[in-house]
Amino acid sequence: MKKRVVVTGMGVAAPNAVGLDNFNSAIQEMKSGIRFFPELRDLKFSCQIGGKPEISEELLQQYFTPLQLRGLKSSGIVYGVISGTDAWKDAGLEITENGSPDWDSGIIFGTGILGVDKFREAIQLIDAGKTRRLGSTSVVQTMASGISAYLGGILGCGNQVTTNSSACTTGTEALLMGFERIQNGKAKRMLVGSCSDHGPYVWGGFDAMRILPSKYNEEPTKASRPLSNQASGFVPGSGAGALILEDLDSAIARGARIYCEVLGGEVNSGGQRGEGSMTAANNEAVTRCITAALKNSNVETSEIDAINGHLTATSRDSVEIENWTRALNRKAEDFPYINSLKGMTGHCLSASGSIECVASVLQIYNEYIFGNLNCEEIHPEIKELIHQDRIPTEKITKKINILAKASFGFGDINAVIILKKYPA
């Protein structure tokens, strides 16, 4: 018998809010976290704006020891440790410094580029013949699994502790990997999520590709415009999201709060064939991924109440909507409600999937659909496919029974999960 899997804890460090309660309020209020960065202007970036969580020194000291903070330059690790630790505590789980490992709990926490600022410092020191000044944390800050290693040590997890990396799909893929481990009885609970560094050395390549908006440097909060006729490229962001997935029996036995149930999902790739490429999804692969996710979850297309899309505020938004209409065989007024978080946070790269998964669960648990920021004028190709009422521009109070969350990543890789409201 396959185990049922539920979400019992969450944490988040997003550009528009840090902390679960703050984030829940921010997305209902449609608060933007996109800001102007003088550093990007000085470096002659075309796009001089981005999304970056605001972390105070006081907050840092609540999660890291003075020794850990010495030389800590990886923003991704900072965001990941904050969100991961918060999720653990939110689930009602204890953090102990001694005793045996928690053999029933594991971690799958992904990233894209981790520790780039530490890498830069290391290169400078090594080239100057000052290798001994690197410090004892340079390795853990720059290895891809540094974030899961940090969290594994803090939480004492003794089950699988690993890191995945699948570009923009990373966080959603991590959730599915953790789900499958619990479903197959290999763990009772898994901390899943993803993080991304911020700054010019992460965002510079995208600026060079000319896929970021350059005309909103003086109006940063208006720059990210998913689904809009004025969409002109994605705004780079950073941060982390984390969720505790748990065997339903375990959650019930310890009296845990249950946010929602994870029914299933699917991951696949378009192989960069046909219309698929390094930067564009193969449309057949996307529709196959959606269809398989529904089949694996035993859900009919008519049962989907809402979709939290990938929707990055590029020309691909209308293509994504077309793929959803084809996979669900639903159009116009029959189409589910759909929204994108990226109008408020920008595109948080490898952290996007996990932050958006947290937002998706919050909508189910608290019975609302957040509005699409900066979508006053819907793209005409999208309006031909679905009714504009399906794209709310402000918060809607609504009970959601089943929600589909999708991430379609760089490299033509896809992930879709299906979440369901758990009866109170």
From TrEMBL:
Enzyme Commission number(s) of this protein: 2.3.1.41
Any GO MF annotation of the entry: 3-oxoacyl-[acyl-carrier-protein] synthase activity
Q: SMART domains under this entry?
A: PKS_KS (SM00825)
The record, for InterPro entries, names: Beta-ketoacyl_synthase, Ketoacyl_synth_C, Ketoacyl_synth_N, PKS_Beta-ketoAc_synthase_dom, Thiolase-like
- PROSITE patterns the record matches: KS3_2
The Ketosynthase family 3 (KS3) domain sits at 2-421
GO CC, sorted alphabetically, is:
cytosol
Keywords from the named record: Acyltransferase, Cytoplasm, Transferase
Q: Which reaction does it catalyse?
A: (3Z)-decenoyl-[ACP] + malonyl-[ACP] + H(+) = 3-oxo-(5Z)-dodecenoyl-[ACP] + holo-[ACP] + CO2; a fatty acyl-[ACP] + malonyl-[ACP] + H(+) = a 3-oxoacyl-[ACP] + holo-[ACP] + CO2
Q: Which Gene3D superfamilies match?
A: 3.40.47.10
Single Gene Ontology BP annotation = fatty acid biosynthetic process
Q: Where in the cell is it found?
A: Cytoplasm
Q: How does it assemble?
A: Homodimer.
Q: Which family does it belong to?
A: Belongs to the thiolase-like superfamily. Beta-ketoacyl-ACP synthases family.
The protein's name in its UniProt record:
3-oxoacyl-[acyl-carrier-protein] synthase 1
- Which species does the entry assign this protein to? Christiangramia gaetbulicola
